[in-house]
Amino acid sequence: MASALVVSYDGSAFHGVARQPGLRTVAGRIEEALSIIGQRPIQLAVAGRTDAGVHARAQVFSCAEEIDPTVAGRIGKLSGGGLAVRSIVPVEDGFHARFSARFRQYVYRIRLAVDDPGYAGRAWLAGPGIDAELLGAALSAATGQRDFSALCKARSAGGFQRHLLASEVVVSSGFVDVIVVGVSFCQQLVRRLVGNAVAVATGRLGLAEFEGALGAFDRARLATVAPAGGLYLWRVGYGDNWQWVFDSYRKAGFEAEWVGFQPDELGLGIECYPCVG
Predict the structure, then answer these.
(1) CA dist., res. 73 & res. 58, Å (int)
(2) Rounded to an integer, what distance in angstroms lies between the CA atom of residue 211 and that of residue 268?
(3) Which tens digit of pLDDT belongs to each residue from 236-273?
């Protein structure tokens, strides 16, 4: 029996998720904690790589061996802060956090009100004047299966052919949240998509210009990269029914859906422990 770990973290506390020698990363700290607990080296696979500063509500790691689910709290403490293991779920042998995933959902949070130190590193203060309809139109123009060279970091691992399934703009008091669901993402795709869509929504970039540069694979014309601190890997899905995530977010909103997390929403398929929010 293998294991899946569902983890949330504050990206400002880490140099990204992937192991990097000499740097504090999410995977590195969890592996170190597991190795201390189990008294043997433990290696994990991760569902989606996130850059330094990017947060996660429900990142998924997998391990080829069984991990005692009652050690979830100890992992968080031994990791030194900034992350929490929401649950440890038994999964079938052969399960892989990355390759078994069917979709990934990201949320990008834009703050409209005046700057507030409490939101530093957790939302992009893009200011008032964002046209939500134009923002949605720019996002829709990028939906589908295509070459995303214009919106991915140069030399991104895995190439530029990606499939964005759908996107939605959710407006609430003081915030505009962009929800993007895709099969997989190349490096900086969501941040560049949101950054340039906001440029369209504030009149700094024409919609036709955005669409033209996207079709021409022109990265130089779509150079705006939204700050890392506004981006959240919201969930990783292991089933095919991804459409419900928009309705769920629309009904619950940012804070309630974060707190109300239940591992069965990911479609891992086996009863979990401790299954707490």
Answers:
(1) 16
(2) 37
(3) 999 988 999 999 999 999 999 999 998 889 988 644 33
Q: Please list, in sequence order, all residues whose beta carbon lies within 8 angstroms of the beta carbon of residue 255, skipping any fewer than 6 positions away.
A: none
Phi-psi region of 187 (alpha: psi -120 to 50; beta: other; left: phi over 0): beta
Check if 51 is active-site. yes
- d(CA 56, CA 42) in angstroms, rounded, equals 22
CB 177 within 8 A of CB 110: yes
What does the pLDDT look like over 158-187, one tens digit per residue? 789 999 999 999 999 889 999 999 999 999
**Phi then psi dihedrals of residue 192, to 5 deg:** -75, -40
Q: Which residue has the tokens 């607990």?
A: 37
How many other β-carbons are positioned within 10 Å of the β-carbon of residue 215?
12
Q: Is residue 51 part of a domain?
A: yes
On whether both 52 and 11 belong to a single domain, the answer is yes
Does residue 274 lie within any of the structural domains?
A: no
One domain, residues 17 and 45: yes
What domain range is 149 assigned to? 103-237
Active-site annotation holder among 51, 131, 218, 264: 51
Give the CATH number for residue 161.
3.30.70.660
Q: Which two tokens stand for residue 254?
A: 């940012």
